[in-house]
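Hi, here's the filled form for the chain we discussed.

Project: internal
Contact: R.S.
Residues: 313
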Amino acid sequence: MSKRSESLKRIKKLDKITKGHSVTRDLYFEGEDRARFPWGGFVTGLFVFLVFAAVIAVWVFKTNNSKTPNNQPSTQVVEGPVATATPAPVEPTATPMPDMESQPNIASFLQGPKSWKKKYDWSGSWGKKIIGGRSFGGYGCGLCCMANFYCSLTPYQCSPVDMYKFALKNSTYPGGCAIDWPQIKKTMEAAGFTVDYGKRPKKYKDFRKLISEAQASMVVISSAYDKTFWKNTYGHYVTLFDYDKITDMVFLADSGKAQRNRRWISLKTVYKAIKRSNANHYMRMLSYDENRDSYKHKKISGKWVKPVYWQKS
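And the returned structure, exactly as it came back:
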């Protein structure tokens, strides 16, 4: 029997066995190569696909996370340079001025009607009175200075008008006008003081020495020479107490205006404002001798505003 005949018989036999089944008869051939599924190519292709897909996924992920969507605010925090706080400027510390009432034993009478009307401390009814044919407020500055000396440097006291009356009796003062240097000297000597007076030294240091050696002093000033402190003041006597060599200041008693009265002021400012057209410029109270005091006046006469710190009765 030929090989072909054998193959046909086998096919017929196989057809009977597999009839009604879906299995392909090629899979049951024996002695011949089987028809196989290409597993190797399939697996290789699948692996290449997965690798490719993974690469694409990674690239898409990185791309999406590296960009900020246009419609979403960025949450990235960018730290700028740290701002250094600028220290606040240090203001210079002002040197504290002594209290205006720090010299309670110093008298500082006011002369005019405006001070009396407002009832300022040290003002008196004499400010509105006509004395010697003229308003005392118009010429009484020198007499206020003399009363300041007497009340501050002696155990006694008097008002400017009391001193006016004393000057009439003890000097050539005629009354009703500004008192002059020789008349002041004569009156204060009668009240127990040793005094001198003279012209403004050319050097400030010499003037400072003169003032520092005195118990108290008076000077004539004018804003025509210096307007630093005094303004619209043609000629005016003021009293100087307690020169302080550390601060180079004096305690000022100014009868002309309450706002200038009882102030600490630079002695150099006083020196610049001295009225040089006068025959003399300053007077100093050098000492007091009660035994030579012919006055010994004990009361401030007339109506006046007594400061609470003034202890003499």
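Let me know if anything looks off before we file it.
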